[in-house]
């Protein structure tokens, strides 16, 4: 009986890992913690149009080979919880590489990231940008463009 329970537990853990993924390569639609990667480039950090205490930027993470990933990183420096929704766009994708993260909340002094899809970038300059929405406001604020050059 103990072996069966262990086997079921192991199977559930493997299935969960396969379905949910792990680390920064996990894409949409969930917000996750920002884990600083070893190779990445970010655009300028700006505050949202509706708050001087909520900052965000678009980054591009470089994985192995030509694989890169757009990421929207949001920091809440206010003393209030903020509602968040985000979209990332990658120019190296023929369809614009749009990914999104569903509504979530970021606590005071918290930081979260919306990881776009990992895909093969183009040789040369690759760019990405994000649109960040907060507290249910229908009009998002655009981030400055991030760029990453692949050789």
Automatic annotation (TrEMBL):
Keyword Signal present in the record's keywords: the answer is: yes
Q: List UniProt keywords, sorted A-Z.
A: Signal
Q: Which domain of life is it from?
A: Bacteria
Extract the signal peptide range: 1-27
Name assigned to this protein? Secreted protein
Question: What organism, scientifically named, is this protein from?
Answer: Streptomyces galbus
